[in-house]
Model the fold of this input.
Amino acid sequence: MIKPIESEKNYLCSRFFTMRNSTLLIVISLFFWNCTKENSLVFSDEKYEKISELGDGEQNSKVTIAIPLAIAENIVSDSINTTIRTFIENVIYLNDTPNNFSSYEELAASFIDSYEELKKEYPDEVEWEADVKGKITFQSEKLLNIKLEYYVFAGGAHGYFGVKSFFFDPKTGKQLTPEELFSDIEGLTLLAESKFRDKFKIDKNKNINSQGFMFEDDVFYLPENIFVTDNGILLVYNTYEIASYADGIQELHIPFTEVKPFFKLDIN
Done:
């Protein structure tokens, strides 16, 4: 066997370590790429629909649920999906007996079953409707905001409708409160009141309810639902929150240039 000369040995060793280091870097890169891929939040637009077989064929009772669904199989996605589903259950499920549905198909079927049971007993019962739509209004490394719009009619004078805002930490799936999102709630409230008065032409020297609004104790406050968008925040007051059913939902938009100082999180 011919032994390699010293320079050849050095060359071969250099090649070996270079190849080994390159392989190690590739393995490490693939590992972190897979971790990032598994932990990244990817959503799929899903739609669930159930239509009653009872009716005149033109306007049968119907349930429609169209929402973004986190598709990764991890605790973050499970937490987000469970929070959304629990809220939708509370909106659509009509029976008093608690029930944890394993799927949206079961939830939709429950709504239609309740209608058909009543329809068989009272043939004049009008058609019911449940409609829930969801969308992502904002998504970054530090904040995810999902918006749900819902309308449910199950007989009576009229249905009920509204919107719901969900803030999530994209890294943990934990639901965030406005206090965790904003650093100065009091300052944000003062800014929002000024904007609200400008929009609805309420003089600063008059009571906030002087134009027919129904703020409790005649004191302005932020709504239960705040949405983050690409160009600012949207304050949404649901029906009965500060106005009558006939007046509907009240909205107020504040651009990022004015509201950015109040954010606790760097969401850029």
Remarks:
- Confidence is low (pLDDT under 50) at residues 1-5, 22-38.
- The helical segments are 6-39, 75-92, 104-121, 178-181, 185-199, 256-259.
